Amino acid sequence: MNADSFNKLVNLIKDHSVFQAGHNEDNRGRQQAPPHHQLAVFLRYIGTEGSGCSNSTLRHIFSFGHGTFTKYIN
Questions:
Q1: The pTM is what?
Q2: Which of 7, 37, 57, 74 has its CA 20 to 30 A from that of 13?
Q3: pLDDT of the chain along its 74 residues, tens only?
Q4: CA R_g for the chain
């Protein structure tokens, strides 16, 4: 995906309530990573799923824990 397409996609989703602090009881009002970061993680995940790139490798690339990774891909 090129940068222009990525930015257009971010602009389509960035104001969705799922990206707001306190969206659900799991994040309890904590600040989330910006939508562009969450989208990048998700796109990398779906782009590498089944290729041998494990979830732990992706967590290492993006420097966050298992729970955060799970939230982003869900």
A1: 0.72
A2: 57
A3: 899 999 999 999 999 988 876 655 555 556 788 999 889 888 888 887 766 566 777 777 777 777 887 788 78
A4: 13
